[in-house]
Amino acid sequence: MIELLGLAAAASLAGWLVRRAQRRRSSAVAAGEPTRVPCMLKWTARSPRWRPGRLLVGAEQLAWKRSSARRP
């Protein structure tokens, strides 16, 4: 029973953090500031793998930037 309480607390904390990040991004875009949204990009021409990165939204053009963390 205590496990369910801990699971519910962890799920509500994760939901609160996600909503907070979404609100921060949407208010930045509404103010005209560019913001970065985490996403995955698949380049089928180069390799069949997904590449983690961030999409720059709110600038003149959409731009994708690879994550700085490299996986071996």
**Helices and strands: which structural class?**
alpha+beta
Shape: flat
* Order of strands in the sheet with most strands: 1-2-3
Distance between the termini: 41 Å
Strand content: 25-35%
Number of helices: 1
The number of distinct structural domains comes to 1
Largest sheet: 3 strands, antiparallel
Beta strand count: 3
What is the rounded Rg? 17 Å
Following the backbone from N to C, one meets helices and strands in this order, namely HEEE
Mean pLDDT: 84
Portion in helices:
40-55%
**Spans of 5+ residues with little confidence (pLDDT < 50)?**
none
Walk me through the structure.
By secondary structure, this protein is of the alpha+beta class. The protein has one domain. The chain contains one helix and three strands; from the N terminus they run αβββ. Strands 1-2-3 form a three-stranded antiparallel beta sheet. A hairpin with a 7-residue loop joins strand 1 and strand 2. The radius of gyration is 17 Å and the shape is flat. The N and C termini lie far apart (41 Å). The model has no long low-confidence stretch (mean pLDDT 84).
